[in-house]
Write a structure and sequence with these properties.
about 140 residues, mainly alpha, Growth Hormone, Chain: A
Length: about 140
């Protein structure tokens, strides 16, 4: 049997991991619920609604593809730098990617580049999310 006790540092680790998970779940729900709006903003209006919906969901899926990449990168980084610093880096990166995603210009402003930027940012955000799970 292990005689590990619940310490103040354990509480901090659990709370920070829980907050990271909550941010991740909120992001998943928020972007999924905005897909009909994003499909009108990031893609040409000439596309059928069902097709633009699926295209945005494919861009959104890049977040899920980036997660194992982030777990591999930040899991190893956590072993070298320490879990606390790595967790802070991943949560900060996740937050910055969310803010930049909110500032993407529309299709009317920059064309298909809006969707490409969205997809790339979602992939990078997925890397940070995967790193957050590995660092915690």
């Amino acid at each position: 049997m292990s005689s590990d006790k619940w310490t103040k540092n354990t509480t901090k680790a659990v709370v920070s991991q829980f907050l990271g998970f909550m941010l991740d779940a909120y992001d998943l729900l928020f972007v999924s619920s905005l897909t009909p709006i994003l499909s009108k903003v990031l893609l040409p209006k000439t596309l059928p609604a069902w097709l633009s919906f699926y295209i945005v969901m494919i861009g959104y899926a890049f977040t899920l593809i980036g997660r194992p990449v982030g777990s591999a990168i930040f899991g190893n980084l956590g072993d070298k730098l320490g879990r606390r610093d790595t967790l802070m880096i991943t949560i900060l990166g996740f937050s910055i990617m969310s803010a930049i995603t909110a500032a993407i210009p529309t299709y009317a402003a920059i064309g298909i580049s809006a969707y490409i930027i969205f997809s790339v940012l979602r992939f990078i955000q997925g890397i940070f999310i995967g790193g957050e799970y590995a660092a915690g």
